[in-house]
Amino acid sequence: MPKPGFIFRPIHESQVQASIICSKKLGIHFRVRSGGHDFEALSYVSRIEKPFILLDMSKLRQITVDIKDNSAWVQPGATLGELYYRRKLVPVPETLTVFTVTKTLKQDARLKIISKWQRIASKLIEELHIRVELRAIGNNGNKTVTMSYKGQFLGKKGILMKVMKKAFPELGLTQEDCIEMSWIESTLFGGGFPTGSPIEVLLQVKSPLGKGYFKATRDAPFLNWTPYGGMMAKIPESEIPFPHRNGTLFKILYQTNWQENDKRQSRHINWIKEMYSYMAPYVSSNPRQAYVNYRDLDFGQNRNNSKVNFIEAKIWGAKYFKDNFNRLVRIKTKVDPDNFFRHEQSIPTLPVRS
Ligand SMILES: Cc1cc2nc3c(=O)[nH]c(=O)nc-3n(C[C@H](O)[C@H](O)[C@H](O)COP(=O)(O)OP(=O)(O)OC[C@H]3O[C@@H](n4cnc5c(N)ncnc54)[C@H](O)[C@@H]3O)c2cc1C
Predict the structure, then answer these.
(1) Which tens digit of pLDDT belongs to each residue from 107-146?
(2) What pairing do the DSSP bridges indicate for beta strands 71-74 and 63-66?
(3) Domain spanning 1-62 has what CATH number?
(4) What is the pTM for the complete model shown?
(5) Ligand 1 within 6 A of 205 CB?
(6) If we measure between CA atoms, which residue out of 329, 326, 347, 324 comes closest to residue 238?
(7) Is 294 a catalytic residue?
(8) Which residues form the FAD-binding PCMH-type domain (predicted)?
(9) Which of 2.40.110.10, 3.40.462.20, 3.40.190.10, 1.10.287.110 is the CATH number of 96-156+211-282?
(10) Could you read off the pLDDT of 69-107 as tens digits, one per residue?
């Protein structure tokens, strides 16, 4: 992988401006890294231009909260854990309830539970969010799929039990499955930290996920189904670039993981490609939509240097942004006509008429 020739780590905003002016003057391509979690590592790896410098924002991590107007200014180097540690941004009750209920393919042989989830997950009351993780487990003769329903309810378990009895009795949620906790504890639970971890772990910069490789468009092939609906559906499609609004039931994350010394890399990649292709008849089409945070360079990429092709870029641009892509291109053409800020899937500019 092409690595940066130089890493610049500003400690003040004015140094960000200075480094941009400098790289523009010298004609050296640059990348900006905030958390560095881009699925395709576009924030710190350039496949299309060399040499390049890296603007590392990790020292700019100030969080300023205005209690009066309930807003927060967060510098790009701050981690989500640091933000969560300091403040909850929307009102939440003192007690939340979380649960995980896992069913095997045998326990849901007629797919009644998973089918019902697909119909109701985006329409549940706003206080309740249930996502599903699907995993293939076991060996050759003993293979099965597990479906883990992971719920978070903004309220106590007694009320949750009533809601579930009415909306989703097929899951068979019991009082014993439910764990009551504070909102901040639920962020640790959701982040995969062991129960009882001190909330100060949110201030660690390191992730609990460890080192390894993954390809995602999570060795257990893994699918994560996250419902939309709620507030997501109330915002008009053209309000902000993210367009997947009312009518979108859920998004699917296809993921496969492997370790550094695993020699079967192509097996993992082939599995995810076959899975993605198999799912085509069952998901959105024209365009088959995608979530920009689940970035995938297999959808296409801008070519070398600053000359990008609008028609090619529209293939992946329409997946991420639907009709908002055209508007993003017009804005980009206006504010950055030279396409100075660019990467493999950046918004292209239109040619300027002379
Ligand atoms: C293990 C894992 C789990 C994830 N889970 C989820 C999830 O559950 N839900 C979800 O939505 N996403 C998820 N993501 C995706 C991730 O949240 C997004 O990719 C997000 O953009 C990462 O933010 P970052 O600050 O780390 O970005 P970076 O990797 O630092 O940057 C992303 C892009 O923004 C540009 N950029 C960064 N900082 C700036 C800046 N200050 N100004 C201008 N451009 C900038 C970069 O150049 C790059 O193009 C996950 C990623 C990983 C690796």
Answers:
(1) 999 999 999 999 999 999 999 999 999 998 888 788 899 9
(2) antiparallel
(3) 3.30.43.10
(4) 0.93
(5) no
(6) 324
(7) yes
(8) 1-170
(9) 3.40.462.20
(10) 888 899 999 998 898 887 766 789 999 999 999 999 999
